[in-house]
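Worked Example 4.2. Consider the chain below.
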Amino acid sequence: MEKFEIILEDFRKDELDKLISDELKINSSEVKSSHFFDNNSGADIEFHQIKSFKDVLSPIGTGNVFLNHMEIGCSLKDVMMIFSFDKEFGDITFNFSENELYEGKSSDVRLKAKKILESLVGLKEKFDIPKIRIGFEPASDDDTCLVEIGQEAVELESAVELIVPQTLRGT
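Applying the procedure from the previous section yields the following C-alpha cells:
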C-alpha cells in the first residue's frame, strides 16, 4: 500500500492560521498526535498548545499533526500534515493511504478525485498558492507526481484521469 501526497508549495506563512482554523477547520479533537518545536520558548509543543502557527514556525520551523479525519473536498481518514517553513514561505504536505482515495467503484473514485481537485483549486485561488503537487509519496519528485496545479488553468477532467489508475477506469 502506497501513500498519497498533496503538497501546497510556497504557502505564505502569514496565511497559515487562517488556513488551519477557518478553511480546513482543524481542531484538537481530530488530532491523534502532533509535534512542533517552538523556537521562541525552545520547547517541544503539541497542537492544542498552539495559539498561532505563524508564531510557532517563526523565524523558521517544522512540525507535524496526525489527524483522525479531515475534509479536503471529501472526507479523508488518518492524514499526516507536515509543515516546513522558512522566513516567509513554506510547504504544507498532506499524506494519507491511497486506499482513502482508491477504494470503491470507479465512479466513486472519480468523484472523490474531482472533489479533492476542486477543493485544492479553490485553496490555490483563495490563498494565492503558486503550486500544488499531487501524487504518490514523494509527490515532490517528477516521477511520482501525477498532477501539478500551477499558474495555468486546470482542466479538471484531464487531471482526474491522471489520478485515477487505469485498472479502475473501466469499472
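The chain has one domain: 3-169. The radius of gyration is 16 Å. Compare this with Example 4.1 before moving on.
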